[in-house]
Amino acid sequence: MYETRNRIVGRAATQRNRVFQDSEVRRLRQELGGRRVVAEILVVIPTYRRPEGVKRAVASALAQTRDDLAVIVVDDGGGLPGDLPVDPRLHAVSLRRNTATLGLVRNVAIHLAESEYIAFLDDDNVWTPDHLNAALCALEADPGLGGVYTTLRRLKPDGSELDVLGLPFDRKLLRWHPYIDANSIVVRRSANIDFSVVPRNRNTLPKEDWEYVWRTSRRSRLSHVPAVTVLYAVNPDSYYTPWELAAEPPGGTS
């Protein structure tokens, strides 16, 4: 019901976002040599004005024990740091303007690459070195899975632990609680659908991740890998998510 309302209210802006997304994919593909980036695993890192954060996120992606990967950083018009690592697996691009639409930024990276699997990492979070291996072992063991998600350790701004979030997949629970975060997800590209490009702010429900997982689970089977592989920064200043650190309910990520 909420998402139906979001689509109606944001219809015109959503269409503008789609047009801009498609034009940026065409432009950036030429910037990358006229062809798509190819790897077994695509790591999508959206960023906006977090130079130190994105460098930590990139470092954790490049440090994965699975190395047949491509990392695509997409800057949402805020500017990229000049000292990103030099690595042939890393590709960093900037959109012509700020969109403030997380789904659009992620979609641009998805369409700039060819890969069997896709993983998502935001610019204020990091993975443990075995994140991709844990997810891919589960996907390789069960070809019927469309995607998996691992467990998050959520950290307060002072670095202390807020909680550990990881529950078996339950679509009835997901209807009411967004307990699966995109930073923990690895999907098969065959099961992948684009993120929504409906404009959202801190108070919009559902968030991009919640809506994405809900639609993905309608088309394919998802499963939980009970390994803590994501260090998730709870950011009270987040543009996208309002945080109540004192009493965060289960499934507070979105």
UniProtKB/TrEMBL annotation:
Residues 43-143 form the Glycosyltransferase 2-like domain. Signal peptide: none annotated. CDD domains: Glyco_tranf_GTA_type. It comes from the Bacteria. InterPro entries: Glyco_trans_2-like, Glycosyltransf_2, Nucleotide-diphossugar_trans. This is Glycosyltransferase 2-like domain-containing protein. It comes from Mycolicibacterium confluentis.
